[in-house]
Specification:
The chain has one domain. It is about 60% helix and about 0% strand. It is built from five helices and no strands. The longest helix is centred in the last third of the chain and has 20 residues. The protein is elongated, with a radius of gyration of 17 Å.
Length: about 110
């Protein structure tokens, strides 16, 4: 089952990762092994969620389960630490300089 709405190159990459990760589900630490592989390859959190959703069968609860698996993985603790530092730095800058303007993507 493919994912509708992705550009063909990204859809192909997600499908290839899904095929590569599927055998890992049979390991003792199956889903964590999947998340380690995806994180070690530098796969983004969003694409990791897409791959994981496909591995879970893409049912009605699969998106929430995939998000929990990716974001709760020990393999992503570095991502969360970096995110936390980046947000803290941004908030400090905004507090220090009230003239900084923040734009939504595409605005300006």
């Amino acid at each position: 089952m493919g994912i509708h709405g992705l550009d063909p190159q990204r859809a192909r990459r997600v499908a290839e990762l899904e095929a590569e990760c599927r055998p890992l589900l049979g390991w003792e630490d199956g889903m964590e092994a999947v998340q380690r592989l995806l994180a070690d390859r530098g796969v983004s959190v969003i694409d990791s969620i897409l791959v994981t959703r496909q591995l879970l069968g893409a049912g009605p609860s699969a998106l929430g389960e995939a998000k929990a698996a990716v974001l709760g993985s020990a393999a992503r603790t570095t991502d969360w630490a970096h995110h936390g530092r980046s947000v803290a730095d941004l908030l400090a800058r905004l507090e220090d300089d009230p003239d900084i303007q923040v734009y939504e993507s595409g605005d300006q």
